[in-house]
Amino acid sequence: MNYIAIEEFCRHYGVELRLIQEFADFGLVRLQTSEAGPTVAASEVKQLERMLRLALDLDLNPEGIDVILNMRQEMQRLRRKTQKLENRLRQLEQERYWNLIQGPQSRGHIVDLGE
């Protein structure tokens, strides 16, 4: 796993280390300690960037950031669930369509032709 030094991250984004430490103290991000100082997993950098935007652009505190991130996560979960249900509905509609096209004879049913 790759790690990014928090000091380098802060320098790149022009923020103080104290802000990232505040996120970590609140449990929004997990910091690792290494010889180079605190680091964050490269996989968490996108999330950390979101936190920065929320803090700097909207002036949100860690509690507000936590609420927004949880709502975002819930929206993503619901979006995936909706997509899954839409796919299932599409599949059922296709099955129904093919059953109507093929008719009862193709399904092995005996059809009374009224002769």
UniProtKB/TrEMBL annotation:
This is MerR family transcriptional regulator. Keywords: Coiled coil. It comes from the Bacteria. It comes from Adhaeribacter radiodurans. Residues 68-95 form a coiled coil. Pfam families: MerR_2.
